[in-house]
Structures are given as C-alpha cells and as structure tokens.
C-alpha cells in the first residue's frame, strides 16, 4: 500500500475488510480516502435474497451500485419487475430496490464503486 496526503494505492489481495456472505462468496473492501470500493466474488448459487438479505435485513437490496463485471454472469431483478443481465466487460449502474442472482456455474466477479460502505456489513 502506498499513501500520500491525497493519493492512495491498494490491492484487493490485502483488503481493509472482508465481508462474507451467508454462503456463496464474499466482498473485499478497500477504503480509498473515505470512498469504499468493493470486489465481490459471487459463487454459483448466490442470490441476494438468500445470501445478503439475512445480513441487510431489508426485503430487497437498498444499495445503489456503480461498477464493472470482470467475470461470470448475474441477473438483476428490479422491484418493478424489470430484469437486467450483466456479463464480462459490462459497466453497470443499478438503482436501489432489487434482488440479484448468479447465472451459470462460473463465479461472478464485480467491482463496485457505488454506495458500498454498508453493503453486506454485519452490524
């Protein structure tokens, strides 16, 4: 890690925090001068309503996500009934009010620059 008054360089291999899901993966978190950046590894079988809802305590995910898909696939199910698919190379913006699930048998790896501060964080 390198730090100056205005610049921080960190690696996900040494996260500031790791947040395990109820099952099927984890989120590694870097604190970049007060801005949280997450790298989620969502294993096959992962679904927000089964793996994060018990931690979040809300009916659907109430976090805004802004990110990039590195590997794997995920389908986002918005509370209004709309669905969105994310795959490798896709940048995405997801509004609060959704469920999500991994599609297929490959781990989905997402980088998240959104409101990641309290995502999957036990209180």
Automatic annotation (TrEMBL):
What's the protein name? Cupin 2 conserved barrel domain protein
User: What species does this protein belong to?
Assistant: Conexibacter woesei (strain DSM 14684 / CCUG 47730 / CIP 108061 / JCM 11494 / NBRC 100937 / ID131577)
Q: Which InterPro entries does this entry report, sorted A to Z? A: RmlC-like_jellyroll, RmlC_Cupin_sf
Query: Which superkingdom is the protein from?
Result: Bacteria
